[in-house]
Design goal:
Largest sheet of chain A: 8 strands, mixed
Helix content of chain B: 25-40%
Number of strands of chain B: 12
Shape of chain B: globular
Distance between the termini of chain B: 50 Å
Oligomer: heterodimer
Strand order of the largest sheet of chain B: 1-5-4-2-3
Chain lengths: 228, 300
């Protein structure tokens, strides 16, 4: 590198980049509206999970296991995309299913955001500097006994996922508009231990987006509908 | 003073500053050093590389009554070796400078730069805290926000009644040394946060220092992530994100660094604004750390 190139980088390119670090978040359409729809990051949402009453008698005994997931929104030229993963078949919990990156909270996680970021880094190598958090959704309880706090965040479109093969089989994106359209979400009946349960499912071709993940997206849609 | 909420110790916004400027106790400082004033060598092909541009911009127009502070001349002692590109000024020299600017223990100081405070208003904010002055705040959004609100600029250089040297000394317990960083290298990540751009942190490019990369175990938080449209993001958002970075360690255990101890001060401002109080700055930062070839370096 010549002296003048060196100086050019130093004086113009790099300070500009550090300042532009979060510019990916400025590209998210409707950022203000989203933020109004979400629970603020200051207060970690409490409560047993908005769907708790549907799961009476079905949950494992004892208190739920605290977990967090990252609902990542990727601002792309064609529109906002939602970042999803398909979990490796062999996994004990929710193997083979479509879900957001995330997992159980550990003691050192200061808040659900910390857990969601740590798990996203472990599962798909998402560095925290390519994530800008917007807010929380309502906690959701899974039939497997996890109380999941979703974090909605902007993810840098330059991020290149590197799935951890032991946990994630595939990383893919689905348009937010599609997932926010009521016409694409349906109720299906599934049998669980001899009982029929209603669960939500998207009609997205190729991947089955249902259950907790569909419910979290439905929660986001309901919250957006309540923003004036 | 309830109207304006004085004293201000982290940020002050344009309306509050504008409302208070009529008062006699507010001394505004113009710290609009550009990145280029970090180095005095001038290459005319890059207009930003004019080391006088901070002073020139000040001369062309500033908030009425503002003084000018120069990063290289007033906020650094470039003669000290082995402490990176912007070594701390001598404590007594800085105390004399403050006196010359008419700043005493009771003065409310407001510092600003061109926009987000990173170059180099936050550095001056930090130095004032270091010498024991608490009533100092950075103008949120800087001169850009001031002008966007329709406030005029003034080109008159104010005459200031000089005071004696500021009665204080740098609290060096708040300044982290390379030895302390070295001693904590084995600690679990979360205690050291680097504010540089991701490319420099990873070591993809290092135009300034002899080695590219970062201190092993340092986390990366480019200071620009704390800024939205030139202003610091809401405290709640920053508290959640910066807190997540620290894990279960308290902020007062945290050390902040950057290239040369300038934007790390901006990261400190974000921490304090977020209510994560007591973090400290590794003033030598990467330029000091990497000047000693025996020190370990991580890349990627």
């Amino acid at each position: 590198m010549s002296e003048s190139e060196r100086r050019g980088l130093m004086e113009q390119v790099l300070p500009g980049r550090a300042r532009q670090a979060a510019s990916f978040a400025e590209r998210l359409a409707g950022r203000d509206r989203l933020q109004q729809a979400l629970l603020p990051l200051t207060r970690v949402p409490a409560g047993p999970g908005w769907n708790r009453s549907e799961l009476e008698d079905l949950l494992p005994p004892g208190p739920p296991v605290e977990a967090a997931v990252l609902a990542g929104l990727v601002p792309r030229a064609q529109g906002t995309q939602v970042l999803l993963t398909r979990r490796t078949e062999a996994l004990r919990n929710h193997g083979g299913q479509v879900g957001f990156p995330g997992g159980r909270m550990e003691k050192r996680d200061r808040n659900p955001l910390a857990a969601a970021l740590r798990e996203s880094d472990e599962e798909i190598a998402l560095p925290s500097q390519q994530v800008l958090a917007l807010g929380y959704l309502d906690p959701f309880i899974t039939i497997s006994g996890f109380r999941v706090t979703p974090v909605v965040a902007v993810v840098d479109p330059d991020f290149v996922p590197r799935p951890e093969p032991g946990e994630v089989a595939e990383v893919f994106e689905v348009p937010l508009d599609y997932l926010m359209d009521p016409a694409n979400l349906r109720h299906v009946d599934v049998e669980h231990r001899g009982r029929v349960r209603h669960v939500l499912e998207y009609t997205w071709p190729g991947q089955r987006i249902w259950g907790a993940t569909a419910a979290i997206l439905y929660n986001l849609r309901r919250r957006l509908e309540h923003v004036r | 003073m309830s109207l304006t909420g004085l004293p201000w110790t982290t940020l002050v916004d344009v309306p509050r500053l504008a409302a208070a400027l009529a008062g006699p106790s507010v001394q505004v400082l113009d710290a609009r050093a550009t990145a280029s004033t970090a180095v005095r060598v001038v290459d005319a092909r890059f207009s930003l590389a004019d080391p006088q541009s901070g002073a020139a911009q000040y001369a062309a127009g500033h908030i009425a009554g503002a003084l000018h502070a120069d990063l290289n001349r007033d906020l650094s002692d470039l003669g000290r070796q082995g402490h990176g590109r912007h070594p701390l000024p001598d404590s007594d020299t800085f105390a004399a400078t403050l006196g010359r600017w008419g700043i005493g223990p009771d003065t409310q100081v407001v510092v600003y730069d061109a926009a987000d405070g990173s170059m180099a208003a936050a550095r001056l904010w930090w130095l004032l805290r270091l010498i024991g002055h608490r009533n100092v705040a950075v103008l949120d959004g800087g001169l850009a926000a001031w002008q966007a609100a329709g406030h005029p600029l003034d080109s008159e250089v104010p005459e200031v009644t000089a005071l004696g040297p500021y009665p204080g000394r740098f609290d060096m317990a708040q300044v982290v040394s390379a030895d302390e960083v070295q001693a904590r290298l084995a600690q679990r990540p979360g205690w050291l946060v680097d504010a540089r751009a991701a490319e420099r942190y990873r070591g993809d490019v290092e135009p300034l220092d002899r080695v590219a990369g970062h201190v092993p175990g340092a986390l990366n938080r480019p200071f620009g992530m704390n800024v939205h449209e030139g202003r610091l993001r809401p405290a709640a958002e920053l508290q959640a994100e910066l807190g997540a970075l620290l894990g279960d360690q308290p902020a007062r255990e945290t050390v902040l660094m950057c290239g040369s101890g300038v934007t790390a001060c901006h990261l400190l401002l974000a921490f304090e604004h977020a209510g994560l109080a007591g973090a400290r700055v590794f003033a030598d930062s990467w330029s000091g750390w990497s000047s000693d070839p025996s020190r370990p370096v991580a890349v990627g």
